[in-house]
Amino acid sequence: MEEMLRQVDQIIKDLQTGELSFEENLAAYQRGTELLKECSGRLEKAEKELIVLEVDEI
Questions:
Q1: Is there a contact between 42 and 56 (Cβ–Cβ < 8 Å)?
Q2: Distance between CA atoms of 24 and 15, rounded to whole angstroms?
Q3: Which of 5, 25, 7, 6 is nearest to 15 (CA)?
Q4: Which of 24, 31, 40, 51 is within CB 3.0–4.6 Å of 20 for a Cys-Cys bond?
Q5: Are 32 and 8 in contact, with CB atoms under 8 Å apart?
Q6: 36/28 Cα distance (integer angstroms)
Q7: What would the pLDDT profile of 12-42 be if each residue is shown by its tens digit?
Q8: Top-level CATH class of 2-57?
Q9: What are phi and psi of 37, to 5 degrees?
């Protein structure tokens, strides 16, 4: 997941430069949103696993 966040950070930097074409901007934005959705899904799964572990300890 850390690698995905590094990629998102790089995408943001690339988008902010203003040097990409419209098509490149669009592709980078789409890739960034895909990565963020994947990260969000992984975090949600981890949170659910932690909740299960906490309940099991009670």
A1: no
A2: 9
A3: 25
A4: 24
A5: yes
A6: 12
A7: 999 999 999 999 999 999 999 999 999 999 9
A8: mainly alpha
A9: -65, -40
Exposed/middle/buried for 20, CB within 10 Å: 0-12, 13-18, 19+?
A: middle
> How far is it, in rounded angstroms, from Cα 25 to Cα 16?
10
Size of the chain in residues: 58
Ordered by start, the domain boundaries in the chain are 2-57
Output the six-digit token pair for 18: 């203003």
User: DSSP string of 1-58?
Assistant: -HHHHHHHHHHHHHHHHS-S-HHHHHHHHHHHHHHHHHHHHHHHHHHHHHHHHHHHH-
pTM of the full structure: 0.79
